[in-house]
Protein backbone atom coordinates (compact mmCIF):
# COMPACT_ATOMS: atom_id res chain seq x y z
CA UNK A 1 0.00 0.00 0.00
CA UNK A 2 2.77 2.42 0.89
CA UNK A 3 4.35 2.48 -2.60
CA UNK A 4 0.95 3.16 -4.19
CA UNK A 5 0.17 6.02 -1.83
CA UNK A 6 3.66 7.43 -2.34
CA UNK A 7 3.22 7.27 -6.11
CA UNK A 8 -0.13 9.04 -5.84
CA UNK A 9 1.48 11.86 -3.90
CA UNK A 10 4.23 12.41 -6.48
CA UNK A 11 3.71 15.19 -9.01
CA UNK A 12 2.69 14.16 -12.48
CA UNK A 13 5.29 14.55 -15.19
CA UNK A 14 3.77 16.84 -17.79
CA UNK A 15 4.83 17.95 -21.23
CA UNK A 16 6.01 21.20 -19.63
CA UNK A 17 8.22 19.18 -17.26
CA UNK A 18 9.65 17.24 -20.20
CA UNK A 19 10.36 20.50 -22.01
CA UNK A 20 12.15 21.88 -18.94
CA UNK A 21 14.32 18.75 -18.62
CA UNK A 22 15.32 19.08 -22.28
CA UNK A 23 15.77 22.88 -21.89
CA UNK A 24 13.34 23.60 -24.71
CA UNK A 25 11.15 26.67 -25.10
CA UNK A 26 7.38 26.09 -25.37
CA UNK A 27 6.40 25.46 -28.99
CA UNK A 28 5.00 28.28 -31.08
CA UNK A 29 1.70 27.53 -32.73
CA UNK A 30 1.33 26.80 -36.43
CA UNK A 31 0.87 29.54 -39.03
CA UNK A 32 -2.88 29.44 -39.73
CA UNK A 33 -2.58 31.11 -43.14
CA UNK A 34 -0.03 28.47 -44.18
CA UNK A 35 -2.41 25.78 -42.86
CA UNK A 36 -5.25 27.28 -44.92
CA UNK A 37 -3.02 27.28 -48.00
CA UNK A 38 -2.19 23.59 -47.49
CA UNK A 39 -5.91 22.76 -47.05
CA UNK A 40 -6.71 24.64 -50.26
CA UNK A 41 -3.98 22.76 -52.13
CA UNK A 42 -5.25 19.42 -50.78
CA UNK A 43 -8.76 20.33 -51.94
CA UNK A 44 -7.40 20.91 -55.45
CA UNK A 45 -5.40 17.65 -55.48
CA UNK A 46 -5.90 15.63 -58.67
CA UNK A 47 -2.67 13.66 -58.91
CA UNK A 48 -1.14 11.20 -56.41
CA UNK A 49 2.36 12.36 -57.39
CA UNK A 50 1.59 15.76 -55.80
CA UNK A 51 0.76 14.21 -52.43
CA UNK A 52 4.33 13.98 -51.00
CA UNK A 53 4.91 17.70 -51.67
CA UNK A 54 1.65 18.56 -49.92
CA UNK A 55 2.66 16.36 -46.99
CA UNK A 56 5.98 18.21 -46.88
CA UNK A 57 4.10 21.52 -46.71
CA UNK A 58 1.76 20.15 -44.01
CA UNK A 59 4.77 18.91 -42.01
CA UNK A 60 6.35 22.36 -42.19
CA UNK A 61 3.17 24.01 -40.87
CA UNK A 62 2.90 21.79 -37.79
CA UNK A 63 6.67 21.28 -37.42
CA UNK A 64 6.43 17.52 -37.94
CA UNK A 65 9.47 15.44 -38.79
CA UNK A 66 7.40 12.75 -40.47
CA UNK A 67 3.91 12.27 -41.89
CA UNK A 68 2.20 9.06 -43.02
CA UNK A 69 -1.22 8.70 -44.62
CA UNK A 70 -2.72 5.33 -43.70
CA UNK A 71 -5.64 4.31 -45.93
CA UNK A 72 -8.23 1.73 -44.93
CA UNK A 73 -8.81 -1.41 -46.98
CA UNK A 74 -11.01 -4.02 -45.36
CA UNK A 75 -9.83 -4.55 -41.79
CA UNK A 76 -6.36 -3.08 -42.33
CA UNK A 77 -4.65 0.25 -42.82
CA UNK A 78 -1.88 0.57 -45.41
CA UNK A 79 0.78 3.28 -45.67
CA UNK A 80 -0.35 5.02 -48.86
CA UNK A 81 1.86 8.13 -48.85
CA UNK A 82 4.51 9.62 -46.61
CA UNK A 83 6.98 12.42 -46.08
CA UNK A 84 10.04 12.64 -43.84
CA UNK A 85 11.10 9.01 -43.97
CA UNK A 86 13.44 7.23 -46.37
CA UNK A 87 11.49 5.24 -49.01
CA UNK A 88 12.90 1.93 -47.73
CA UNK A 89 11.36 2.60 -44.28
CA UNK A 90 7.92 3.21 -45.79
CA UNK A 91 8.21 0.12 -47.98
CA UNK A 92 8.89 -1.99 -44.88
CA UNK A 93 5.78 -0.79 -43.06
CA UNK A 94 3.28 -3.57 -42.96
CA UNK A 95 -0.46 -3.17 -42.67
CA UNK A 96 -2.02 -2.21 -39.35
CA UNK A 97 -4.96 -4.37 -38.31
CA UNK A 98 -8.05 -2.58 -37.04
CA UNK A 99 -7.69 -4.35 -33.67
CA UNK A 100 -4.01 -3.42 -33.19
CA UNK A 101 -3.09 -1.76 -29.92
CA UNK A 102 -1.53 1.48 -31.15
CA UNK A 103 -2.56 5.09 -31.66
CA UNK A 104 -3.12 4.75 -35.41
CA UNK A 105 -5.50 1.80 -35.10
CA UNK A 106 -7.22 3.47 -32.14
CA UNK A 107 -7.81 6.65 -34.17
CA UNK A 108 -9.34 4.48 -36.91
CA UNK A 109 -11.56 2.50 -34.52
CA UNK A 110 -12.74 5.42 -32.39
CA UNK A 111 -12.76 8.20 -35.01
CA UNK A 112 -11.01 10.45 -32.48
CA UNK A 113 -7.62 12.12 -32.41
CA UNK A 114 -5.02 10.09 -30.53
CA UNK A 115 -1.83 11.51 -29.02
CA UNK A 116 1.37 9.74 -28.01
CA UNK A 117 3.53 11.63 -25.53
CA UNK A 118 7.21 11.87 -26.29
CA UNK A 119 9.48 9.14 -24.95
CA UNK A 120 13.15 9.32 -23.99
CA UNK A 121 14.00 11.37 -27.08
CA UNK A 122 11.03 13.66 -26.42
CA UNK A 123 9.36 13.01 -29.78
CA UNK A 124 5.59 12.53 -29.72
CA UNK A 125 2.93 11.78 -32.29
CA UNK A 126 -0.64 12.47 -33.30
CA UNK A 127 -2.95 10.12 -35.18
CA UNK A 128 -5.94 11.94 -36.69
CA UNK A 129 -8.83 9.99 -38.23
CA UNK A 130 -9.68 10.84 -41.83
CA UNK A 131 -13.47 10.83 -41.63
CA UNK A 132 -15.62 10.42 -44.70
CA UNK A 133 -19.42 10.81 -44.83
CA UNK A 134 -20.09 7.28 -43.62
CA UNK A 135 -16.84 5.88 -42.21
CA UNK A 136 -13.23 6.52 -41.28
CA UNK A 137 -11.29 6.16 -44.56
CA UNK A 138 -7.83 6.37 -43.03
CA UNK A 139 -5.54 8.02 -40.52
CA UNK A 140 -3.06 10.87 -40.78
CA UNK A 141 -0.12 10.08 -38.47
CA UNK A 142 2.45 12.76 -37.68
CA UNK A 143 5.67 12.62 -35.67
CA UNK A 144 6.28 15.77 -33.65
CA UNK A 145 8.99 17.37 -31.55
CA UNK A 146 9.12 17.89 -27.81
CA UNK A 147 5.85 19.24 -26.40
CA UNK A 148 4.13 19.54 -29.76
CA UNK A 149 1.88 16.51 -29.19
CA UNK A 150 0.11 18.44 -26.42
CA UNK A 151 -0.19 21.71 -28.36
CA UNK A 152 -3.90 22.43 -28.97
CA UNK A 153 -3.25 24.42 -32.15
CA UNK A 154 -1.16 21.62 -33.70
CA UNK A 155 -3.85 19.11 -32.76
CA UNK A 156 -6.51 21.28 -34.41
CA UNK A 157 -4.48 21.87 -37.59
CA UNK A 158 -3.60 18.15 -37.83
CA UNK A 159 -7.32 17.35 -37.53
CA UNK A 160 -8.11 19.89 -40.29
CA UNK A 161 -5.46 18.35 -42.56
CA UNK A 162 -6.94 14.88 -41.91
CA UNK A 163 -10.46 16.12 -42.73
CA UNK A 164 -9.30 17.72 -45.96
CA UNK A 165 -7.31 14.61 -46.95
CA UNK A 166 -10.36 12.43 -46.28
CA UNK A 167 -12.46 14.58 -48.61
CA UNK A 168 -9.79 14.52 -51.30
CA UNK A 169 -8.73 10.86 -51.05
CA UNK A 170 -11.83 8.90 -50.01
CA UNK A 171 -12.69 7.93 -53.59
CA UNK A 172 -9.14 7.36 -54.79
CA UNK A 173 -7.42 4.02 -55.21
CA UNK A 174 -4.44 3.63 -52.86
CA UNK A 175 -1.94 6.43 -53.35
CA UNK A 176 1.68 5.67 -54.11
CA UNK A 177 4.03 5.44 -51.15
CA UNK A 178 7.00 6.40 -53.31
CA UNK A 179 8.13 9.98 -52.77
CA UNK A 180 9.74 11.84 -55.66
CA UNK A 181 13.54 11.94 -55.36
CA UNK A 182 13.54 15.76 -55.25
CA UNK A 183 11.56 15.86 -51.99
CA UNK A 184 14.19 15.21 -49.30
CA UNK A 185 13.27 13.86 -45.87
CA UNK A 186 13.32 16.34 -42.99
CA UNK A 187 16.53 16.51 -41.03
CA UNK A 188 16.31 14.96 -37.57
CA UNK A 189 17.34 17.11 -34.62
Please explain how this structure is put together.
- The protein is an alpha+beta fold and 189 residues long.
- The protein contains 7 helices and 6 strands.
- It has helices at 2-9, 15-21, 32-43, 51-62, 87-92, 103-110, 152-169, and strands at 64-73, 76-83, 96-97, 114-116, 124-131, 136-144.
- A 6-stranded antiparallel β-sheet has the order 3-2-1-6-5-4.
- Helix 3 runs antiparallel to helix 4 (51-62) and helix 3 (32-43) packs parallel to helix 7.
- The longest helix has 18 residues, at 152-169.
- 41% of the residues are buried.
- The model is unreliable at 1-19 and 174-189 (pLDDT under 50).
Name a few traits of the molecule.
189 residues, alpha+beta, 6-stranded antiparallel sheet, globular
| Gyration radius over CA | 17 Å
Low-pLDDT parts are 1-19, 174-189
The portion of residues assigned to helices is: 25-40%
Please state the overall shape, judged from the principal axes of the Cα atoms.
Answer: globular
Number of helices: 7
Q: Taking all residues together, what is the mean pLDDT?
A: 80
The largest beta-sheet arranges its strands as: 3-2-1-6-5-4
| Major sheet attributes | 6 strands, antiparallel
Q: Distance between the terminal alpha carbons, to the nearest Å?
A: 42 Å
Based on helices, strands and strand pairing, what is the structural class? alpha+beta
Strand coverage percent: 15-25%
Helix-strand pattern: HHHHEEHEHEEEH
Count all strands and give the number: 6
Amino acid sequence: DEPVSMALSQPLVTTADTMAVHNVAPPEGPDLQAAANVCTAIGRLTNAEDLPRLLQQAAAVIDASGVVIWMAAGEELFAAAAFGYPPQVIQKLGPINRSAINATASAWRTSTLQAVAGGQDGRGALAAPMLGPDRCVGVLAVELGIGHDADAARRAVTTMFAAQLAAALAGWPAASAAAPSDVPPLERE
